[in-house]
Amino acid sequence: MAYNKVILTGRLVKDPEVNHAESGKVITKFTLAVDRPPTSKGAQKETDFVPCVSFDKTAEVIGNYTQKGSLILVEGRLQIRSYENKEGKKVYVTEVIAGKMEFLGSKGEAKQADAGFSDMGQSFSEDIPF
Q: How far apart are CA 88 and CA 123, in angstroms?
């Protein structure tokens, strides 16, 4: 059985953008800078900037405890959607829907609104009730 699963490690390009839907659902948008592996010895480093979206508890954690430069791991799925813009042109959007995340940086790299996160990565998932 084939399924869609993405795992990325990278740094936030800017502070995450937290929004609340009318239903009360928390939605956090962020972009990860993810380095590509070198293609040859001495090759210049290349980086992809991957747009990500998270919901509910994962969105709350990312919004509350990360900031520009935070090193995190996200696990989720790749989503490609489309819509018509104001000019009537079809626009395609590719993004990662992040369902789980782990802190990979030191405690000093994350916002310290709450204590108790380990340096080796505390996992969070939408499945965990807070």
A: 42
